[in-house]
Design a protein that fits this description.
- It is a single chain.
- Helix 2 (about 25-50) runs antiparallel to helix 4, helix 4 (about 65-85) packs across helix 5 (about 100-120) and helix 5 (about 100-120) runs antiparallel to helix 6.
- This protein has helices at about 5-10, 25-50, 55-60, 65-85, 100-120, 125-160, 170-185, 225-230, 245-260, 295-315, 320-330, 365-370, 390-400, 405-410, 425-430, 450, 460-470, 475-490; strands at about 165-170, 190-195, 205-210, 210-215, 235, 260-265, 275-280, 285-290, 335-345, 350-355, 415-420, 445.
- The chain has 18 helices and twelve strands.
- It is globular and about 70 Å long.
- Strands 2-1-5-6 form a four-stranded parallel β-sheet, with helices on both faces. Strands 3-4 form a two-stranded antiparallel sheet.
Length: about 500
Amino acid sequence: MTAANEQLVTPANIVPIPGKIPTWQQGYALRLVAIDVVGVVLAVGLAQWLRFGAVIDVVMPYRGVDYTAVSLMIAVLWILALSINRSRSPRVIGSGAEEYRRVWLATLSVFGGVAILSMLFKLEIARGYLVIALPAGLLFLALGRWIARQVVVRARRRNGSCITRVLVVGSPAAVRDLTKSLAREPGSEYQVVGACLPGPLRRDHVDVPGVGAVPTYGDESDVVNAVRITGSHAVAVTATERLDGRGIRNLSWELEKLDIDLLVSPGVVDIAGPRLQMRPVAGLPLIHVEKPQYSGAKRFQKRFFDIAFSSAVLIFGLPLLIPVAIAIKLTSKGPVFYRQERIGLDGHPFEMIKFRTMVDGADKMVDKLAAHNESEGGVLFKIREDPRVTRVGKLLRKYSIDELPQFINVLKRDMSVVGPRPPLAKEVKTYDDYAKRRLLVRPGITGLWQVSGRSDLSWEDSVRLDLFYVENWSMISDLLISVKTVKAVFGHSGAY
């Protein structure tokens, strides 16, 4: 232990070691139990009432089946299945889609079991009852958990509570990368409170751009003391040459005595969970990274979604599109639509269609306004108070109404509903091999860049988000991004 750390480890500095499960997680899990019970009872009660009507029918057997007993049995099995599937595990609650996936699996297992038992023992349980109970239960459970999650996220953003304190062990570069990744999401559960840097290099802190300074507490031999000093709930080991397999194993044994979680970051950046598979080979746990999939069934699903979604938007949005076109024509000179060449799939150019929100000839004014560009990185051109935008254009941009005609591009196969931001030809000329991977899929009307800040993003963050989508895209992610886009549009985040 270094002299600097000997000064840190004093009775005044040492705080009680927290338990493996932080207090907020214990309370959160208990609230989820109540939420699940209420949701399940409401679901089976609603199904029984809607299917059989009057109270006398509810309490009396229907065609030889006592549905009060059936509802009670399903409710008990449902609650047990949620517990068995660990849907309230501290590992999943309050973050990510895994919590909802476990709720979905628990629900399907219960209703699948009920269907099988009904068939084997010829119970003839009314299908209408099950048809109502299943979606109602999923809705109530998902809604209750979403509300509970929003309460936790709001607490994290307002006063920094409901967090898991993490001590990072790794090189300075690895500490910076992990800290930046965790800090990108304001409602993230994990907060880096300190670091241990393996090796002879000694420093008081690690500077993390955009986040601040992370204090350091010695090397890999000082982890236990650092846990006491920082009051950490978990230790995250990142890429480091000094801590081999035996060192990590010994560290896990030490942390096990303290009831502290051990997290291991494999150093695989911007790779989503579904592409990572743990495979034991010769007694070693190896992480297999699946190749990105851009063809086959997934491509067909994406195209089907694009056609169905775009057709619905254009048909049901027609009462809005016509008044907007008239307002643009009456309030400023120039065409209703703005057409601009963008670069699409595999680098092929196409003509993107939008409602015109600027004065006619706005493209020719870019050079005069270049000094006012507010976009970080210099590749994109963005001005918060752009003088070229018309009064109607400001309103259209605020609610992203100007982008509705792009659904025509989707039907023409130029674009997709969800994808990377469609770049200009001059932007593509600046791309390195890293950024060119954005062109492996069709550009989208919305995407991770849209729901993560839009115009407020720097060039580096925009590229990073687009590449993450390209490397990990799936239909589930497209649906989630589509839902989040509605929130981003009405929140006016980064719209100018």
